[in-house]
Amino acid sequence: MTILVVAEHNHVSLHPSTLNAVAAARAVGSDIHVLVAGHQCQSVAQAAAQVEGVAKVLVADAPAYAHQLAENLSALVVSMASAYGHILTPATTTGKNFLPRVAALLDVNQISEISKVVSPDTFERPIYAGNAIATVQSSDKIKVITVRSTAFDPVAATGGSAAIENVAGAGDSGLAAFVGEELAKSERPELTAAKIVVSGGRGMGNGDNFKILYALADKLGAAVGASRAAVDAGFVPNDMQVGQTGKVVAPQLYVAVGISGAIQHLAGMKDSKVIVAINKDAEAPIFQVADYGLVADLFEAVPAMEKLV
Hints:
Layout: E1 3-6, H1 17-28, E2 32-38, H2 42-49, E3 56-61, H3 70-80, E4 86-90, H4 93-106, E5 110-114, E6 116-119, E7 122-127, E8 132-137, E9 143-147, E10 163-166, E11 196-200, H5 211-220, E12 223-226, H6 228-232, E13 253-257, H7 263-266, E14 274-279, E15 292-295, H8 298-308
Helix pairs in contact: 3-4, 5-8
């Protein structure tokens, strides 16, 4: 049957993770439809129509979807579900928020954060902080799946010419209301989409010392992340956390500074193409996954690196 990919977006542009989810859908096979649910989101629909491999874009443009409330978005997806054999979305905050509700309403199991498609009904997903891979086979009529975007190379954002079709939304469920939001603002790249990430750990000592990472990141055009230990210590806000309970990243270059390498952190960055570790402890676990390791005092090494860039 046809596959439905629920797009991740900000009502203006398509999030790159959607391209990874479409790649996973292509591995499953069959025609791919993309659902764009939002408010005043026609530019997103047009971008989705250009994505390689997409046959049709369905647009539900209504105020009820302006804030991606799980109650409203899940009702919309459920109303369309009978026409599809698979429903996929990126394993982002939004995807993790509404898709479990979809699975519950359809009375099927959700398969979370797949990293490989073995066959249309069989998938691989990491468990135990990525230390083991589970192969999961589903007999459900509709497979409800979140996709770990770092595990799939994105399809091309251009080259497609899908038809765009408006669909009637399910409206406001009345079960929840949007109150407000506080968004972190930064001139640096968004953490999950950055090609270079510089992250600091407990070894940074305090939040003020992160300024040496910011200086290096600005020279590299990089995003700045942190380990859970650094976040829990109050050095930086939790939206910077990389790891099993934070954000999963897979940049071209990941620089781990003062990070010991707990398995929970490794689960969020081990798919990075090149990993550079700086730590004064030569026995730190991070060196086991690093492509390049520097045993040195980070307060001397990082400023020296920044001067060389």
